[in-house]
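Quick one:
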Amino acid sequence: MTLEEKLVALRKGKNLSQLELSEILHISRQAISRWEVGIAVPTTDNLRVLSELYGVSIDYLLSDAAEMSDTIHTDDNSSEKTAKKRKKYVRIWMLSFIIVIAVLLFVGIAIAYQNKNNNETPITEMETEEEPVTFSGDFSVSW
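Output:
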């Protein structure tokens, strides 16, 4: 990709017109047009401002070998990545929470089912052996 093609693609990627870009750079719209058709080349200062505006390196702008998708790193991209990471962690926590609730619910149902199907009759009275109790001897205690 040539410098001219990159300048057009990057400008359109930011949804800027040549007039809007010229106002940002404080130059004429015709200067932008000359850059984009290859009649002129931006100055070093303008290349620096363009690289900051578009989130690319000056090397990318000047090199014909660099691919745009590999080198563009804007603040919008990093904030989108951060938002995606947050959403991913929230999804993981929510899924973990749902799994824990489901396991607890399953265990509770299993225990209730086991108690319901337990064939033992409940103890209603305490069973004791009835032997006669006889006391013999003296139960006095001396201190």
